[in-house]
Amino acid sequence: MKFFFHIGRYFVMLKKVFARPEKYRMYIRQLFHEIENLGLNSIGIVVIISVFIGGIMVIQFAYNMANPLYPSELVGLGTRDTLLLEFSSTMLALIMAGKIGSNITSEIGTMRVTEQIDSLEIMGVNSASYIILPKIVAVVFIFPFLYILSVFFGLVGGLFTGILSDVVTMKDYIDGIQFLFIPYYVMFSIIKTLVFGFLVASVPAYFGYYVQGGALEVGKASTRAVVNTNILILFFDLILTRLLLA
Amino acid sequence: MIEVKNLYKSFDGNNMVLKNVSAVFEKGKTNLIIGKSGSGKTVLLKSILGIYDVDEGEIWYNDRNFLLADDKERKKLRQEIGMVFQGGALFDSITVADNIRFPLEMFTNMTAKEKSHRVQSCLERVNIERQAFKLFPNEISGGMQKRVSIARAIALNPKYLFCDEPNSGLDPETATVIDNLIHAITKEFEITTIINTHDMNSVIEIGESILFISKGEQEWTGTKHEVLNSGNQKLDDFIFANKLYSKMKK
Ligand SMILES: Nc1ncnc2c1ncn2[C@@H]1O[C@H](COP(=O)(O)OP(=O)(O)OP(=O)(O)O)[C@@H](O)[C@H]1O
Ligand SMILES: [Mg+2]
Q1: What are the residue boundaries of the structural domains of chain B, listed by start?
Q2: pLDDT digits over B164-185, tens only?
Q3: Do B51 and A119 touch (CB under 8 A)?
């Protein structure tokens, strides 16, 4: 029953979030602030993780396909498709839920327990909309870029690792990542990143917005927010993959 | 003037926090709500402000019935309200000056210059020095935070000012400064001010009208001149818990 209560309250919150902004200029300013805060500050970690994962995947594919019957282009192809389809969308969203999500919950939760949200409400500001809307828009906006960045750096990481560890030649790898390329995979994944971006911003925002208590509860809410966001990401991954790919 | 009539408020249906509270808070006066910790002062204040929905009763802001007002009317009314929270509730991601500028940017069409002017005059009114304008709330002391909070509350020239324990956690001297500041502002702009406190100094200093609540029930109303000789047992227990006031009475 608790579950339905949360679902209901989540949608009540969203209704408040998507009300018409009071003053567009203030929202635009918040939006740019959030894009910087949540997006630009995530580029570093996305690049690092993608390079390593790309490298690891190349080694694994090479190891699993160390059979003279398989064409060696398969290493590049496998790495590419894994990045395109799952890693750079789903896995990255899971990682971002940890980074961005916990940030959002603790920021909003702290505003709640220190009465800053009440303070906005008393001024006559729609607090849900003012605080949460710019975060959702910012995260949904940046996620596709992070996805593209991740695919790119994953492939680069794979290339360097492949050459340095001598498991694949540059030519085979480059041929591989161009072989049997299906543009729809990119399309499909970008749709997923938009959905995941919405989840990564709105679910933690929900947990922060309705925190009750003090600093301890804010910490607990952050943990709960990340866990629930992760579950929802995987759930929607399943649904979207079934709907759009199969 | 704010008037509440037969207010009832419970949480989760059973925990009755306010029981039949009726009171008039007059314009141009510092109206105090006093009572022990947990007696329901904050809940009463937040109910009057509409942060909590009450179970029963009426709340009037002059001739406007707050509980019957729609969202638009409430919003308009709220721009006439300033609030100083128990913890200050300053926006901690922006500077002191931007905290005051925020309501101006949200609700007025002032030019940048007018806004800077207003920010400066509000902060000067509460004796915040210029060097502190650029600091963040966590870089200034608790007493300064309270004063900045007052400055923010008066930025839009409110008709109604609510203060939840404005001087708790402050030294007696600073506490008196804050009390006098709120009192002076109330007189200066003819504001209807409601202050929650359990500080007896404030009661004696600025208690022009006092509502004493105990366990959510209104127990006594009067002024600072009457408060020491009320003849009300619960009020006496509250006041004379501090020996100093027993001596003062004698
Ligand atoms: N959100 C809430 N949910 C449930 N009960 C609450 C809530 N807020 C307050 N209460 C209860 O209402 C009662 C009155 O609380 P309130 O905060 O009004 O006290 P107070 O008079 O302001 O005390 P203090 O002087 O310590 O600030 C307390 O028993 C408290 O447990
Ligand atoms: Mg209180």
Answers
A1: 1-80+163-250, 92-157
A2: 999 887 888 888 988 999 999 9
A3: no
CA distances from residue B205 to A183, B158, B178 in whole angstroms, order as listed = 76, 23, 11
A10 within some domain: no
Please state which CATH class domain B1-80+163-250 belongs to. alpha beta
Asked whether residue A234 is domain-assigned, the answer is yes
Which range marks the domain in which residue A205 is found?
Answer: 21-244
What is this structure's pTM? 0.89
Identity of the residue in A23, A110, A122 whose CB atom sits nearest the CB atom of B106: A23
Q: How large a percentage of chain A has pLDDT more than 90? A: 72
What pLDDT is recorded for position B212? 95
- Is B155 within 8 Å of chain A by CB? no
> Contact, B60 vs B2, CB < 8 A?
yes
Count the domains in chain A.
Answer: 1
**In this structure, is residue A9 part of a structural domain?**
no
Instruction: Name which of B85, B136, B145 to mutate to probe chain A: the one with the most chain A Cβ atoms within 10 A of its Cβ.
Output: B85
Spatial distance between the Cα atoms of B250 and B246, rounded to a whole number of angstroms = 7
Q: Identify whether the C-beta of residue A96 lies closer than 8 Å to the C-beta of residue A199.
A: no
CA–CA gap between residue B88 and residue B149 (Å, rounded)? 6
